[in-house]
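@channel sequence for tomorrow's demo:
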Amino acid sequence: MQNKVFATIEKYNMLKVGEPVLVGLSGGADSVSLSLCLKKLGYDVFAVHVNHCLRGDESDRDEEFCRSFCADNDIELVVHRVNVSDYCKEKKLSLELGARELRYDVFQKTMKQLNINKLATAHNLSDCLETTILNLVRGCSVKGLCGIPPVRENIIRPLIDCTREEIEKYLSENNQEYVTDSSNLVDDCSRNIIRLNVLPQLKRINSGIYKSYLSSLDNFRTVSSQLDSSACSIIKDSKISENSYDVHKLFSVKQPVLGTAVGMILGNIGVEPSSHRIERIISLCESEGKLTLSENLYAECKNGILRLYRQEACKNEIFSQNIIVGENVACFGKRVSVQYTEKSDFSFNVHKKFTKNIIDCDKIKGVLVVRNRRDGDKIRLSNRKVTSSVKTLFNASVPLEKRDKVVFLADDDGVIFIEGFGVAERVSPDNSSVRLAEIIIESCH
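structure tokens (generated this afternoon):
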């Protein structure tokens, strides 16, 4: 197995001879064999163990084993204990995802602390096949069929061509013990179901499944690399500005290059490029509009331009100021005024201003206020004959980052005017109106 690991390191240019490397050490067969193998191959091995504190005495047992193993093999060890349960509650994450985030955060901090540039994880060929099956079941691109990449940025996987059986044999030949995580022996999650139930049945069909899979992986990776190259080219050609793209140029290619390009665009802003998200973006570009990709990530296609942007929850001030007819108020870089106007200046039948910015002063209830939006705001716009929530109106045409700077006028009964949309039906002028006022919004610049 050592020869295979060295060949993998050479094939993917993972490490230089003698280069320091940090190993994520759990105490299990995979990470123990990786640490031992790299040490025997002459690399300067350091290890980091993360105690997730999820399995009580068993977690503490794993930590003590790692300390003993590293002492016996002259490997410098860094140990961190993290509270996964509290972190997951705070971030509203699954235990699996929360533990992974904390673990990789510790890995990166330890690399910086020890001034090491490479992190080696113990993912092997069995893990890779499990990932391919899992991706295939969920729906994936060619990249998903490739399973776990041998190298991702500064993370290397020297065991990626070794099976779990080869790893256990190597440990046995070296009389090296390891610990077993009991949670891996219960088929209570997708990966364990595949590992414990699906793979044994596939081996019954083809005892040489790993050899066949390795051959397929080479093909998958070649095709994926070619797709990536074509996708990078079309992204470069269609890019207008940061996270904005010319839809016509983007759609000058067909699937699967188009889907690969969209996946890369998502990946560039830190979003998992799932097949569902990719399909939603493509559909959006075909029809235009907006969609929410995650809690604070949005995609908008308008006038042939695709734009992706993040918008944190609004922390702008809540603005509200009383106004009377004849006065003006400054807000959001604008000047808002309400001025009396003569009824004879307009025709109710043809002048569109009557449905946009003219109000009947005698229909105002109580105090008139200039403000920005509030949760639950609704308005029945003149001539629409239906009451709409402001959220629905804004979703159709107002970019998220501009919504809290849209001017509203309201009285004691609610919203009577929204900038860009017009006045409420209940304050619209009619043939019996006497006192009219025009709402005027001008830029202060």
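heads up for whoever presents: DSSP finds 14 helices and 22 strands in the chain.
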